[in-house]
Design a protein that fits this description.
The structure holds two protein chains of two kinds.
Chain A lengths: L1 H19 L6 E2 L5 E7 L3 H17 L3 E7 L3 H11 L8 E5 L3 H7 L2 E2 L2 H7 L8 H4 L3 E2 L2 E2 L2 E6 L1 E6 H6 L11 H11 L1 E3 L2 E8 L4 H9 L7 H5 L12 H16 L9 H9 L3 E7 L3 H7 L4 E4 L15 E8 L4 H14 L2 H11 L12 H9 L1 H11 L5 H4 L6 H15 L5 H19 L4
Parallel strand pairs in A: 2-3, 2-4, 11-12
Antiparallel strand pairs in A: 1-2, 4-14, 5-14, 6-7, 8-14, 9-12, 9-13, 10-11
Chain B lengths: L1 H5 L9 H37 L2 E4 L2 E5 L3 H8 L1 H31 L7 H9 L6 H12 L5 H9 L13 H26 L3 H10 L3 H29 L3 H6 L11 H11 L3 H26 L7
Antiparallel strand pairs in B: 1-2
The chains are: A alpha+beta, B mainly alpha.
Subcellular location (chain B): Cell membrane
Main location (chain B): membrane
Membrane topology (chain B): Multi-pass membrane protein
Chain lengths: 442, 307
């Protein structure tokens, strides 16, 4: 009994010491190299691709070592970062999605990369302006764009042929979209074996459909000129989006594919619906996995509206503030490496994300890939056709994650027969409350 | 622990107070590990949560004292009311069904038959499955395009139901998977309780020639009541704290129909960065569970028969 107790107390002491001595997140390795941690949210095949790029960086020079760590989805990795941000344990480089931009800036725990750009007179004009401007506030570059994507309309060309539609002529306006969806919908008795269209219940798609009409998500020029105080997405433009979804759902041509990207893509591949909105980063996987021909087209817009293009989605890389000087240098060096044309070309080809350095599109591997997957080029063209404005720059608010949940709840209530305007107004009222509460933060 | 004391010299009358003090300190020493563990991992977080619920706070800590504002905001918000409704429904769907299922399976396998071990292993096997793994399996089964439930519905000629996308079914679907996940644990506990019942009682019943149902009502259930009481209490608390399957299957949607209080706390604290509101919800949940458990002990325990 005594011995057992003694043993237990030894274990207990060991346990306590184990708790207190957490490893420092980054430091200097034995061989004199500076080691930094890189948190990212790229799962699956993308993770392999990120690891490969990091390995190549590590062997390309002998001063720094980067350790990539997968932290789950964008939302999850932001959540995890919040718990260590501002401490010495924070990762030197973290990949954060576009909606977390304002939250990161406000947190005060990040080092804007502008400092290093100025120090070195680094030429940022080589970057794709439509992408880097998203991460610029008041002329200051806060983070380094890394992976960017835009929404596109993906469609089943075989189903288009069967329905008597021109597979090379994808619908562009809402009325064309509705018409095509009607033709594509196949009903057998009271069962629908093929729906026309599906849009994932995800706030990002709503933001995009709003921006392409030149609509603002929040007031004060999308929160880019002074802080946002009120939601503005419940205007006519926002209503058009909700009316489209609600109308098509009632007609039985719209399929509700839930909130899960993989579920939506699985439904598309099994032919549950013939058209869907997807991220440009998902196109390559779709083309590879579908047993029919996949077409890709620009995001649709309401009739009589001049399409403004798209907001870039995806993520950028943020540098931590409270870390050693040499680690910041390592982080900056790694970021510069990532934005070179060669690395971006490889990244674009493997992931389907945009190259943030347009010179990458001139690389041979990209040209070859575009011949194999002409769909990828459509996504790049759409980005280049975008008209720069505060609408297509996207909203800058710190409460983005919550605002997106409200939009999702609004979209979901449409399937329960809620009136589009009422659903939007309710979401807007919730976002107003949260904005008001958010403005009281430190 | 008594052997430690036996080794001490027998104290004389004069050293009594000293000995008492020593025993007192010795007692504390034995308690120390659990006091430290509970203090660090239970009591400190608990008091910190109560403290934070009176502040506007983000993940870096509190920054503005607001008194009861968080509570007022919560009580008046539609979202919290639907969370309360979802939580109560979830508890009602999962606890009785889970316990009845486990009891039924345990009664079935409480016989001494060849090969019964296989069934006992099967029925308790869900205990060995992690919530995450089982949730992913259920997610595939519920998938409207490729899931097995849709296939069966199609085969029977019914239209496929979007289990997790339809607010009318989502909570039921999550509850069904939860019943399955929790059945293994409840089954094991109840089977253990059944095995503990004195076999003489059944022999007497046999001699008296009573029916199976009479035997169940008059012998098995009363003798099992302490076990049942335990499992009911634990299941209630578990159901109130369910998180994993909701996070994986529905993320609180659609239209907040599965946004149970614990999930709402998680969303506010970690996604919306509103720790004050999350803490206030946690405090409310804590007192609800406390009240319910106290009620159970007061009302339920009267019916419990301890041998």
């Amino acid at each position: 009994m005594k011995r057992l107790l003694a043993g237990l107390s030894v274990l207990f002491v060991l346990f306590l010491t184990a708790c207190s001595s957490t490893d420092s997140a980054s430091g200097t390795t034995e061989d004199g190299k500076t080691e930094i941690i890189f948190w990212h949210a790229m799962g699956g095949e993308l993770e392999a691709s990120v690891n490969e790029i990091v390995d190549e960086y590590n062997s390309s020079q002998d001063k720094y070592t980067v350790k990539p760590v997968y932290q789950g989805s964008y939302e999850e990795s932001l959540t995890k970062l919040n718990t260590v941000a501002g401490t010495a344990d924070a990762p030197a480089v973290t990949q954060i999605f576009e909606a977390g931009t304002k939250q990161m800036i406000d947190s005060g725990n990040i080092q804007p990369v502008q400092k290093f750009i100025d120090e070195e007179n680094y030429d940022t004009s080589q970057w794709e302006e439509n992408i880097s401007s998203y991460y610029q506030v008041d002329g200051e570059q806060y983070s380094m764009p890394f992976n960017s994507s835009t929404p596109v309309l993906a469609y089943n060309k075989d189903a288009f042929k069967e329905a008597g539609l021109d597979p090379e002529q994808a619908p562009r306006t809402y009325s064309e979209l509705k018409e095509a969806a009607e033709k594509l919908t196949i009903k057998e008795g009271d069962k629908t074996s093929q729906y026309g269209l599906s849009i994932l219940n995800y706030g990002w798609f709503f933001e995009e459909l709003l921006a392409t009409q030149g609509g603002m998500f929040v007031d004060n020029e999308n929160g880019r000129e002074g802080g946002a105080t009120k939601a503005s997405f419940n205007d006519e433009k926002g209503q058009k989006v909700f009316e489209l979804i609600s109308g098509m759902y009632e007609e039985g041509t719209f399929y509700n594919s839930g909130q899960n990207w993989d579920d939506m893509r699985a439904s598309f591949q099994t032919g549950t619906m013939a058209m869907m909105l997807d991220s440009s980063a998902g196109i390559k996987g779709l083309v590879d996995n579908a047993d029919f021909e996949v077409g890709v087209a620009y995001l649709p817009h309401p009739d009589n509206v001049d399409p403004q293009g798209v907001i870039i989605g995806g993520a950028s890389l943020w540098m931590a503030k409270d870390i050693e000087e040499n680690q910041q240098q390592a982080a900056w060096d790694f970021m510069k490496y990532l934005s070179t044309a060669e690395v971006q070309a490889k990244w674009h080809v493997e992931s389907g994300y945009f190259a943030i350095n347009p010179a990458a599109y001139e690389e041979d591997i990209v040209k070859q890939e575009w011949e194999k997957y002409p769909q990828l080029k459509v996504t790049v063209d759409q980005l280049h056709d975008t008209v720069p404005s505060t609408a297509t720059q996207g909203a800058l608010i710190s409460i983005f994650p919550e605002a997106r949940q409200q939009i999702v709840t609004g979209m979901e209530s449409l399937y329960q027969g809620e009136d589009p305007k009422a659903a939007l107004d309710k979401a807007a009222a919730e976002v107003d409350t949260v904005l008001e509460k958010g403005s009281r933060s430190r | 622990m008594n052997d430690a004391r036996e080794l001490l010299p027998v104290p004389s009358q004069e050293s009594r107070p000293k000995r008492n003090l020593f025993a007192f300190l010795e007692g504390w020493l034995y308690l120390l590990p659990s006091i430290i563990l509970f203090g660090v991992f239970v009591f400190y977080p608990m008091f910190r949560t109560i403290y934070l619920s009176f502040f506007l706070a983000d993940q870096m800590g509190p920054f503005e004292f607001v008194g009861l504002e968080n509570y007022q905001y919560i009580v008046s918000s539609d979202s919290f009311q639907s969370s309360v409704k979802a939580t109560i429904l979830f508890v009602l769907y999962t606890v009785p069904a889970g316990i009845l299922l486990a009891l039924f399976l345990a009664l079935l396998t409480n016989e001494k038959i060849k090969g019964i071990g296989i069934f006992r292993t099967l029925f308790s096997s869900t205990m060995g499955m992690s919530v995450a793994a089982s949730s992913v399996i259920w997610m595939f089964m519920y998938n409207p395009s490729i899931g097995v439930f849709s296939r069966i519905a199609e085969w029977l000629g019914f239209p496929a139901i979007q289990w997790l996308q339809n607010p009318d079914y989502a909570l039921l679907a999550v509850s069904l998977s939860t019943v399955w996940m929790n059945a293994g644990f409840a089954y094991l506990i109840i089977l253990g309780g059944l095995q503990n019942i004195d076999t003489h009682l059944y022999e007497n019943a046999k001699v008296a020639g009573v029916s199976y149902l009479y035997q169940l009502r008059r012998i098995t259930l009363p003798m099992l009541s302490p076990t049942l009481f335990f499992i009911v209490t634990v299941s209630f608390i578990n159901a109130f704290q369910t998180f994993g399957q909701i996070d994986i299957l529905t993320k609180g949607g659609p239209v907040e129909s599965t946004n149970v209080i614990v999930y709402s706390i998680y969303k506010d604290a970690f996604i919306n960065n509103d720790v004050g509101s999350a803490s206030a919800q946690a405090v409310i949940l804590f007192f609800c569970v406390l009240l319910l458990t106290a009620l159970q002990f007061k009302l339920g325990e009267r019916k419990v028969h301890y041998q």
